[in-house]
């Protein structure tokens, strides 16, 4: 959730509490209050989706990182050493089984693992003769599938996060429209009650507004970034 949206929602909660505490029989007022409650409920739902999407993407990323470390530490290292023994007189073949360097990206890494796995399947018999565990290649194949599944989960989480973030921006704009309506009604309603009018203005003030600014400001357009800002409770 962006800071701008968070501030709008905090303002909307204050406004809703105010209008519930000081109801009015005006049908337009009642309708606006109901709409405000509906938009706040929708914002809460979207905020949950935004958080869960971000968490899912982060968890999948951490799982990929752990899987890469696990593959480097044991199965790929073992395969490389067995290949070194099996193809000690064929350095050009032996090089095909090298563990990818730590500097490569995750996509390059898993592509290299797939290529190594294909080479190992083709040379399975000779590798087995030099000590390759019979289950190792199957384990590597499963690990590659797991990695692909983590990519899918991460992408799904990112889509959910980005989609909910965009919808929250739209809901914040709707909320501001409802508050403007309530502001016009309440300003007239409390025109002869300075204390109540001041309380109303305080409730519907957005924190980013300049001192003395009375009209709720529009939500600033989001600044392009690699990922939306973290949710602030």
Name its key features.
233 residues, mainly alpha, 8 helices, disordered C terminus
Report on this structure.
- This protein has 233 residues and is mainly alpha-helical.
- The protein has one domain (3-203).
- Helix content is 73%, strand content 0%.
- The chain has 8 helices and no strands.
- It has helices at residues 3-21, 27-73, 75-86, 91-94, 106-122, 124-129, 136-189, 194-203.
- Helix 1 packs across helix 7 (136-189).
- The longest helix has 54 residues, at 136-189.
- Residues 209-233 have low confidence and may be disordered.
Domain tally? 1
Unreliable segments of 5+ consecutive residues:
209-233
Q: What is the end-to-end distance?
A: 9 Å
Major sheet characteristics: none
Shape, principal axes of CA atoms: rod-shaped
- Output mean pLDDT: 85
| SS field, number of helical segments | 8
Helix content: over 70%
Q: What is the number of E strands?
A: 0
Rg measurement, Å: 29 Å
H-E order: HHHHHHHH
Question: Which strand-content bin applies to the residues?
Answer: under 5%
Could you say which structural class the secondary elements and strand pairing correspond to?
mainly alpha
Outline:
With about 230 residues, this protein is an all-alpha fold. Helix content is about 75%, strand content about 0%. It has one domain.
């Amino acid at each position: 959730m962006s800071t701008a949206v968070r501030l709008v929602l905090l303002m909307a909660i204050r406004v809703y509490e105010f209008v519930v505490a000081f109801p009015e029989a005006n049908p337009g007022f009642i309708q606006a209050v109901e709409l405000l409650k509906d938009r706040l409920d929708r914002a809460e739902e979207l905020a949950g989706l935004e958080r869960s999407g971000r968490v899912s993407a982060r968890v999948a990323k951490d799982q990929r990182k752990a899987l890469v470390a696990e593959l480097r530490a044991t199965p790929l290292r073992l395969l490389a050493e067995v290949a070194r023994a099996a193809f000690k007189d064929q350095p050009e073949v032996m090089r095909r089984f090298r563990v990818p360097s730590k500097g490569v990206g995750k996509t390059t890494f898993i592509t290299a693992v797939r290529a190594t796995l294909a080479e190992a399947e083709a040379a399975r018999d000779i590798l087995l003769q030099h000590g390759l565990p019979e289950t190792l290649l199957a384990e590597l194949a499963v690990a590659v599938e797991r990695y692909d599944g983590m990519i899918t989960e991460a992408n799904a989480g990112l889509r959910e996060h980005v989609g909910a973030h965009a919808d929250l921006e739209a809901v914040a704009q709707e909320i501001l429209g409802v508050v403007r309506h309530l502001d016009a009604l309440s300003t007239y309603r409390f025109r002869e009650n300075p204390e109540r009018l001041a309380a109303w203005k305080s409730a519907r003030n957005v924190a980013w507004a300049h001192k003395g600014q009375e009209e709720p400001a529009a939500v600033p357009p989001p600044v392009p970034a690699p990922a939306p800002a973290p949710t602030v409770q």
